[in-house]
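pinging the channel bc i need a second pair of eyes. not urgent but kinda urgent?? the chain im working w is below, pasted from the shared doc
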Amino acid sequence: NSVPNLNLVAVCTSHPEKVLADYPSVKVHRSLDEVLSQSQIDAVVIATPNHTHFDLAKQSLLAGKHVVVDKPFTVNAAQARELKALAEEKGLVLSVFHNRRWDADFLTLRSVIASGKLVELMSFESRFDRFRPEVRARWREQAGEGSGLWYDLGPHLLDQALQLFGCPIAIQADFAMQRKNAQAVDYFHVLLRYERLRVILHASMLVAEETPRFVVRGVAGSYTKFGLDTQEESLKRGELPNAEHYGHDPRDGVLQLQTAAGNITTSTVPNLRGEYRQLYAEFHDAVLLNATNPVSLADAVLTMELIELACESAALGCERIVSLKVN
């Protein structure tokens, strides 16, 4: 409701009391069929367990609705390609909620790279570590299709890397279930190989110490950022996206550059403001103004192709060459 010209009118949920506590005027439904039967609804947002994304998105597209589906887009590349083809056939906007393109730290990182101060980039590390030694009784941490850390955090880190550097030459992945009683992947270490650049995507549930969120190194220096984007926690606390300090990340990144004399200078880089609403604002324009989809279907399919290739690499214990063409 904080995005102009977008109005929340209905929710399909098994917990109506939770929705009505925050949105008393919203209609609550028990089935997606009830929602899709309403002609006044233009678009559907799918925020459900990963293994349900494909069926629910397909059902919504067949009903003539525009769709935003949470990441991961689907649980395999074949499903992603089918949804892409269906949306294009129906002339509908189908987008994926890769919201971390609008993290404060990622927007700032992009600006640092775009400035050219690091000159040619040699390595990039993107980490999302946590310390949660106990396995929780939730679907993300239980055995099942689309569960585990790679399907939870992997789409975020992979999509960000693709936005920065494009499609890699090859991918190599190491997955593990490290915690006692773990039933799904809770550790991943993925290497994306480019010509000279090497990109590492890493996440673990057993890291107690603070690790950097981003480190990018070039021939002229490096940029390091600690701490996570604040938007998710702000929303969990009930803060509104139009609040004055929403989207502000107080932990500046550190830029280290070599001078002509060979010395290393150190400076801080204030963060740009994060803004998840931008995805929905651009989705609105794509639906009504024929503007560009905020997360193109080509991007969404490529991400799923690489998610799948990483799974193959981890299973085989070897690098997989990326030979994909997504139009």
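so The chain has two domains: 10-99+284-290, 103-278+307-321. and The mean pLDDT is 96. — does that match what u expected or am i reading it wrong
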